[in-house]
Amino acid sequence: MIRLERRPQPSTFWTWLTPLLAVALTVVFGGVLFAMLGKDPLVAIRTIFFDPLFSQFASFYRPQLLVKGAPLVLIAIGLSFGFRAGVWNIGAEGQYIIGALCGAAVALALYPMEARWLIFPLMILFGALGGLGWAMIPGLLKVRFGTNEILVSLMLVYVAEQLLAAMALGPLRNPEGMGFPGSRNLTQYDSATSWIDRAGGMHWGVITAFLAVILAYVVMSRHILGFQIRLAGQSPRAAAFSGVNPGGLVLICLGTSGALAGLAGMFEVSGPAGQVSIDFNVGYGFTAIIVAFLGRLHPVGILLAGGLMALTYIGGEIAQSQLQLPAAAIQLFQGMLLFFLLAVDVLTHFRVRLRHREVA
Amino acid sequence: MKETLLSLEGLTKAYPGVVANEDVSFDIRRGEVHALLGENGAGKSTLVKTIYGLVKPDRGRMRLNGAPYEPAEPKVARRLGVAMVFQHFSLFDALNVAENIALGMENPPRPRDLAARIRDVSETYGLPLDPFRTVGDLSAGERQRVEIIRCLLQDPKLLIMDEPTSVLTPQEVTILFETLRKLSAEGTAILYISHKLEEIRALCETATILRLGRVVGTCDPRESSARQMAEMMVGGELLVPEREPGEGGAVMLEVAGLSAASPRPFGTALRDIGFEVRAGEVLGIGGVAGNGQDELLAALSGELRTKPGMVRFKGDDIGRRGPNERRARALLTAPEERMGHAAAPDMSLTENAVLTANVREDLSRHGFLRWGRARAFAELVIERFDVRTPGPDRAAMSLSGGNLQKYVIGREILQRPDLLVVNQPTWGVDASAAAAIRQALLDLAAGGAAVIVISQDLDELMEISDRFAALNEGRLSAPRPARGLSVEEIGLMLGGAHDMEVAHVDA
């Protein structure tokens, strides 16, 4: 029979191999799924993984990878702090929405003033503060009353969505929009757009995402805060003995992930999305959870995982349009990735042994 | 004389590195309440597990009612009339009493019949219990009743009880004792394990005393004093301290009226603890684990904050200071639990050095860690305390318990504390390593630091302490000079007998 034997220490080899194994398993079972939907699995996989990078239209798709990947990486970097410390912020989607609303609101309030040195920095500040503030709700409730941050942060996503709809239909609606829902288009407001080079897919969110990766790497490996975060996640009692203030750490982790999610939302609304609309959010906050785990909660891993996930988004869209695969099949495909990653994760801590059961 | 029910003949059981039971022989008679006494590690648990079929002895045999008795597993033991109530209950909170009991039976009767039988037994033996109540809502005493009734439904000839009163209120103890006396009167023998000597005097007819795996004596507790039994438990041969008592320098730590609720559920609250420790002195605190040791350490380490005035270090009130502020003042601690408290199991030894040594060893600058220094410090601990490991990059959990303990103690000692508090410093450590740790603690005191050693090992405390105090149910007896302290006095301090309570009030 199969037995699992605990390793004396986690295997570094498997720590880095399991994400690759999970991707491989996802490809295999995704292929089976596509075959059952009546599509050629090889073509479908090729369309998702290779066409965005190497097909004849790749020059059109490659900038899209940056646009899709940036918010995922930015949010996932923030989440990884909390996940390492055992603080489970599941509501990044809500913080993303609120960040976008706050950032957009500042710009719309100042419209049509042109002062890029003032307006865009203010938007960054308010976007971050908005996400941070929204994340402080589950944070303070947890520290003060011991509520479960998973439930509170998740439920606040739905509150944020309602707020988004109310704003798009009410205070932030474009006064010149003939009554249609949605705000002014920020990409047409020079001082408030995050675009740097639309053709290259470059906007300030991409730059911020790269900066966040570097900063997170330094904090996690070199700074006492990173040490305390890892310690609190592994053994809370040892962390308390070491002198870590558990409540403070909860607030720092939720605050960081909230601020980064808020920034991602702000860059999105002032760049690729352009306006506050009812269906502004597309689930980056949830997909980022997959990205964070797929990247082993490690900044560089998250960067790679964000790229891979962006690839499945772009490839998925191509597969939808060219192969008529349903959107749900692509979402299932992405979900499989997390499922397999968690499943094969057991290999880092356990060794699989095949042997007959000993008679006790 | 009642007839013999179970006789043990020369039972021996060795584990790698330790002989748990050696040539243990005694008889349990029908209907008697038989106490099994001994310190922690004396071999009581192994012995009762052998009787209950959980452990197979290396040598020796048992006879039940004159017939050979070799239970291969607890099921066999139960069928032959041997039942056991464990210290830790195995009940499902979400199920009701009758369902829990049915789960343990091989052929459970219909629920209604079972409930009737439970009611029947609970009334007969004075154990009030409603079979349809959910176990999650029951008190510890009521849960124990579920376990006892589960045993009684099998109509046992011998009932083994492991530390049954440790979780009970005094009222519940009274009810339990009445039940046990009734069972005994009906001919059921009871093997009763406890540290509490006064309880044993009140309940038991015979006591067998184990020490280091051997039977060292038998007595009738009703006719013996708690002193005599304590003397047999710890042996009359406690090692004499080999060093001169410290001169006693300036007062390092002053604890006065320290009372605090335990931070953990089911922990022991600290009650009005007062003592002081001087530079160059070793204060030994004895007592059975779970009597407030963890809480006292937490109150000193800073994990548990206390009210103003309760804890003073070098004259400063530090009751509200956190662990790192106390470390900065040279108050260092080493908790009992190595994995997950004193050390993080998944982290390397270098990272575990940062865990407590960041402040005093200057392992970070502006919050940025200096891994080179941390690694050098870890290497120093490994070298000076003879920690057997390939290097400081190994995870803490890859070390054996004794080696990790050496690392933990060494990490604190090398940070040059003015006061070091250690809880069970040599628990699970082999003899030579234990001797090295004790010597290091003595050297620390000789160098002018104050040391507090919390331990269950009386030999250890007598060897290294200048003064000795006992912790019992969250109360600390007044410390006394360890030299010249007789075995019976120690026994009384540990047992929390009445005259010590008086002494405590006087202090």
What does this protein look like?
The complex is a heterodimer of chains A (360) and B (507). Chain A has 360 residues and is mostly helical. The radius of gyration of chain A is 22 Å and the shape is globular. The model of chain A has no long low-confidence stretch (mean pLDDT 91). Chain A has a single domain, classed as ABC transporter involved in vitamin B12 uptake, BtuC (Orthogonal Bundle). Chain A has 15 helices and 4 strands. In chain A, strands 1-4 form a two-stranded antiparallel sheet. In chain A, strands 2-3 form a two-stranded antiparallel sheet. In chain B, helix 11 packs across helix 12 and helix 12 crosses helix 13. Helix content of chain B is 34%, strand content 24%. Chain B has 17 helices and 23 strands. In chain B, the strands form 5 sheets. In chain B, strands 13, 16, 19, 20, 21, 22 and 23 form a 7-stranded mixed β-sheet that branches. Chain B is an alpha/beta fold and 507 residues long. The two termini of chain B are 48 Å apart. Chain B folds into 2 domains: 231 residues, Rossmann fold (3-Layer(aba) Sandwich), CATH 3.40.50.300; 256 residues, P-loop containing nucleotide triphosphate hydrolases (Rossmann fold, 3-Layer(aba) Sandwich), CATH 3.40.50. At the A-B interface, helix 9 and helix 10 of A face helix 10, helix 11 and strand 18 of B.
How are the secondary structure elements laid out?
The complex is a heterodimer of chains A (360) and B (507).
Chain A: E1 2-6, H1 12-36, H2 41-49, H3 51-54, H4 58-85, H5 92-110, H6 116-145, H7 149-169, E2 195-197, E3 202-203, H8 204-222, H9 224-234, H10 236-242, H11 246-269, H12 284-294, H13 299-323, H14 327-344, H15 346-349, E4 350-354
Antiparallel strand pairs in A: 1-4, 2-3
Helix pairs in contact in A: 1-2, 1-14, 2-13, 4-8, 4-9, 4-11, 4-12, 4-13, 5-6, 5-7, 5-11, 5-12, 6-7, 6-11, 8-9, 8-13, 9-10, 12-13, 12-14
Chain B: E1 4-15, E2 18-29, E3 33-37, H1 44-51, E4 59-64, E5 67-68, H2 74-79, E6 82-85, H3 97-103, H4 111-124, H5 140-152, E7 158-162, H6 170-185, E8 189-193, H7 197-203, E9 206-211, E10 214-219, H8 226-234, E11 251-260, E12 270-278, E13 282-286, H9 293-301, E14 311-313, E15 316-317, H10 323-328, E16 331-334, H11 349-357, E17 364-365, E18 368-369, H12 371-384, H13 401-413, E19 419-423, H14 431-446, E20 450-454, H15 458-464, E21 467-472, E22 475-476, E23 480-481, H16 487-495, H17 498-506
